[in-house]
Amino acid sequence: MLEATGLLIVGLILLVWSADKLVFGAAAIARNVGISPLVIGMTILAMGSSAPEMMVSATAALDGKTDTAVGNVLGSNIANIALILGITALIKPLSISSMVLRRELPLMVGVTLLSGLLLWNSYLGFYEGILLFVLFAVFILAMLQISRKEQQNGDALLAECESEIPTDVSNKKAIIWVVIGLILLPFAASMLVDNSVIIAKYFGMSDLVIGLTIIAVGTSLPELAASLAGVLKGEDDMAVGNIIGSNVFNILAVMGIPGILNPSILSDSIMGRDFWVMLAVSLLLVIMALGKSRSINRLEGAVLFIIFIAYQGYLLMNMAA
Question: Where are the bilayer-spanning segments (predicted)?
Fold first, then answer.
């Protein structure tokens, strides 16, 4: 048990680190070959924080644990809003000025509702997985189009995204980081999933609950790091945009993976409990972000954080569900 816990922690660290290096190398190569900073920021960097979830969901699905893969998506989205934005707003109230974000927020809610529609019968099938990936491609193209228009107006989020792209990195160094990331990422994901299963069996946790708790929080660490870094640098739109983009990517891309790799019947608890929590915190974020103040203050951050603690506590008291 202690060995499994230690290996799980090592797997989490390797997962987050290798994903970061993979994205760093890919973004540097893209910049070096002349790809627009806007395209890099809205694709490679935006999707990078969801790389751990993608790899873990693929690994879990191939191991026949689709509940864990879907639980990772729902749990990560809940953690992104309730835990990460909650903590971030407690540190410093978040001001939202980007028009891109104001357009992304309704899209996030729409995608969340779509996931409920697809999961309503507690089954995630192959064609549903394909549909999610097609919509993911449409979403990327739509956001690029919106971003190009807003770039002319000097949108704050786009300027912050472009400032995060690495500069003065040689192709050789960038390729080395990409190779290291590609090698370590699946290895770390496998280590994380395998040892999570051992811990789950020891405590009598279901595959779904392990995905909603340990794995979800662990794979959300890149979003936590990015949001905290953004708010400390005064890049509030980046902190919030990172979460919104990650939640959309998680549903459209990450949840599509287990549907394609291992179509399965899912736990009834997904639609009976966890989807509604994800929808509730998503709507709460929209109300906070698009209200009169266009901000998330410390009190609202505290509310989000308390919701997360209460939800995790409930899950741990009902570990077999």
Answer: 69-91, 126-144, 174-193, 208-232, 239-261, 273-290, 302-320
